[in-house]
Amino acid sequence: MFNIERWQEIFEAISKNKLRTFLTGVSVASGIFILVILLGAGRGIQNGIQNQFAQDATNRISIWPGNTSKEYKGLGIGRETKLKNRDYEIVTQKFEDYIDNKSAIYSVWSGNVVFGKETGTYRVEGVDPNYQFIENASIIEGRFINYSDIDHYEKAAVIGKKVATDLFKKGIKPLGQSINISGMMYKVVGVFTDPGGEREETRVFIPLSTAQKAYSAGDNIRSMAFTMPKETNFNKAVAESKKFTEELGKVLKERHMIAPDDESALFINNSLEQAQNIYKLTDAIQAFFWFVGILTIIAGVVGVGNIMLIVVKERTKEIGIRKALGASPASIIFMILHESVFITLISGFMGLLFGLLLWAGIGPLIESDFFSHPEVDFNIALTTVILLTVAGGFAGFIPAYKAAKIKPIVALRDE
């Protein structure tokens, strides 16, 4: 039940000690403010990392060759591992049940691309049709490489949006145009966009078979890329991908006479395993931010508790008179708790409001590869409010309990 006299007492007590109340409120508000800032920063880190993984399929596994660093079966150190079409065929046949999308890749790292008077140097990659889904590329005009292009060695090119912007000026449509790639003419059959942004859109895809023939690669490939079927359980997906990469490495090392423990001759990248490690790191960062923020709040709450002890000491005689006139211990406790909770909640709400307003103002302006859209969601804000209420009650309970235990005769003799 609303008791106006109780609230008048609270405001009167606060007005008598304005500076003390203000400093106590600042300590609580700063604790909540710091917590909101830290949690928003943690969310920004998580969003940035998730955006990075969105650039390619999250369950991507890539293999590329290196040089041996250990002797094996009489073969020396420094041998270059060369992946072949046959390696790709054996892997895709042997691990068919593990694989969702697949592509062998032949990269031409510094492909000179010319259209009319415009020219640029871009990464040119010979790929299979499934590579679109491995890269998470979206076709915005035309189509991607298809199996007919592979079978007939077609000189077809799919260019990134940034390449199209660089080469085709004055409203010229890229589709159907002929471009010169390192001395050979190709027809543009598609334009793609990529969630990785301009860096990923400065590429040109051509049929793998055409790339090997046009650039005298024979049956060599630069790398392979696969995705695995999606699992509803993340931990199960990670376990399956680890098993696949281990067996895949074993097969390829046996084919190329590489020592089983040679980590330099063949590189296998498992994006799911990377994601698991990074998500664990971001969870640890969030937990640390919560820890620091809560400690800061506790420091403010301790300050509130100390202030309430002083209040009880100053009002000892008043409390004694109340009890002599018949005030119950519960009413004394509630009187002190009301003031404690009120100071804590108001201060905490101010800290919460300033923190949310700060992120709302500067959050959209902060954008980097690993930090994006810092924010604090409603659930976090609600949790913070509940935490404040509990903390305010806890801060005032011990002083309130001490006040309720005061004996009237002792209180009335207090000077």
UniProtKB/TrEMBL annotation:
Its main location: membrane. It is found in: Cell membrane. It is a multi-pass membrane protein. Keywords: Cell membrane, Membrane, Transmembrane, Transmembrane helix. Signal peptide: none annotated. The keyword Secreted does not apply. The chain crosses the membrane at residues 21-42, 287-312, 332-360, 380-401. The keyword Membrane applies. Belongs to the ABC-4 integral membrane protein family. This is ABC transport system permease protein.
